[in-house]
Design goal:
Elements: H1 8-14, H2 17-33, E1 39-43, E2 46-51, E3 65-72, E4 77-81, H3 82-86, H4 88-100, E5 106-107, E6 111-114, H5 122-130, H6 134-145
Antiparallel strand pairs: 1-2, 2-3, 3-4, 4-6, 5-6
Helix pairs in contact: 2-5
Amino acid sequence: MQSSAATVEQYLAELPEERRAVVSAVRDVILQNLPEGYAETMAWGMISYGIPLSRFPSTYNGQPLGYAAIAAQKNAYSLYLLGVYGDPALEAELRDAFAAAGKKLDMGKSCVRFKKLDDLPLDAIGRVIAAIPPERMIELHEAAHGKGKRAGGKK
């Protein structure tokens, strides 16, 4: 379920009240823990957090370097944690935090799927968001895509 909203405010206004409350609560945790240097925008129909092109233009797809995103899907929610995908130790911490909280982690490579706010250990989500400053995210990106590569894979 992708939104065509141009702003975060429009995206939230489109959601039914109950779904808006869940997305807003997760968004609040992200914003409270987001390291300086990331920007909140709308991208790919979701509320997204990334490194602006003005700070790091050498992405593989010519888009801001993504870090996290939150979206209300048709029957659930998706929380994308791209830093977890690039950092196995951070992924292990997240998995351990879910287990310690007695919560089931439904995660693909970077997408944590959940049906209700209580499915997330919000303190752990906050720690994961706070864990990777933009400089580290750039290092992870360059390790995955080759240092110095420009959009389209060209040096």
